[in-house]
Amino acid sequence: MPTIVKSGAVNPSAATVLWQSLTPTVTATNAVALYPAINLIDPATYSAWLGSASDTAARYDFGSAVAVNGFGISGHDIATSGVEYRVQYSSDGTTWTTVHAETPLTDDDIFCIFPTVTARYWRLYFPGAPASVAIFVVGNRLIFPHAPVADYKPLHHARRYVKRFNDSVGGEFLGTTVMSAGAETDVNMGFFERLWLEANIRPFEYHYNQGGKFFYAGCPSLYPLDIGYCRAMGDEDTLEIEWTEADKMATLNFGVRAYVG
């Protein structure tokens, strides 16, 4: 599913990341047993929320108004289920305004960026039949000053599959088993002003270095397929930051591994 860029979104051609930096109280109008809505804020993609009836919603209450300019959905079967979803916000938990609504064509990750909205309540709403969703993140994105530079492989061209081929004694192709799948790439952000980096990078640096999951998009408006629900590439990966140009500039590099359902 391509990145969705709503009119007025800030700097849509720059790389951006989004993670659940605040923990909301999660409730749902209904859920199938063993598929509660609290699974939506569990970073694992194997657990999910599934409504048990039509006209169902999972609601996030942040306790007070929060600034939000992006949402991400991963590990879902909305397209397979052939249903519509809506992401909405409210100041009172009663009257809802829709940020985005669609019936997606694939079950790929969804990442939407939009002008900042400040509200206490947010929800993922299915006006008709429900669908299974593993991850639903809303929050305030970290927007880098520009897109990745140098030798960069976008995520949708960086998928890797571990396969087992099966051939007969006579050499006929019998079939292929995919053992695992994922996408990996190195993000070289090149040069930033050191002052920008010092003022903005620490929350994401901590989240990334602690093994946190996040949505990433390399250049939403120009390359909408270059997105994914990600983590650090390896067990020992950290954000690589170096000062240069008499400490007035800085370089930033990090690796990502994306979930491929």
Could you give a short description of this structure?
Helix content is 7%, strand content 48%. It has 3 helices and 16 strands.
Count of helical segments?
3
SS content category: mainly beta
Helix fraction? Answer: under 10%
SSE topology string:
EEEEEHEEEEEEEHHEEEE
How would you sum up the global shape?
A: globular
Count of DSSP E strands? 16
Poorly predicted regions are none
What composes the largest sheet?
A: 8 strands, mixed
Straight-line distance between termini: 12 Å
Q: Cα-atom Rg, whole angstroms?
A: 20 Å
Task: Give the percentage of residues in beta strands.
Answer: over 45%
Instruction: Please tell me the overall pLDDT.
Output: 94
Features:
single chain, globular
Description:
- This protein has 261 residues and is mainly β.
- The chain contains three helices and 16 strands.
- It has helices at 78-81, 194-200, 202-209, and strands at residues 4-5, 16-18, 25-28, 49-50, 56-76, 85-90, 97-102, 110-126, 132-139, 142-143, 159-167, 173-193, 214-217, 227-232, 240-244, 249-258.
- Strand 6 and strand 7 (97-102) form a beta hairpin.
- The longest helix has 8 residues, at 202-209.
- The two termini are 12 Å apart.
Describe the SSE topology:
Blueprint: E1 4-5, E2 16-18, E3 25-28, E4 49-50, E5 56-76, H1 78-81, E6 85-90, E7 97-102, E8 110-126, E9 132-139, E10 142-143, E11 159-167, E12 173-193, H2 194-200, H3 202-209, E13 214-217, E14 227-232, E15 240-244, E16 249-258
Parallel strand pairs: 1-8
Antiparallel strand pairs: 2-10, 2-13, 3-5, 4-9, 5-8, 5-9, 6-7, 6-8, 11-12, 12-16, 13-14, 14-16, 15-16
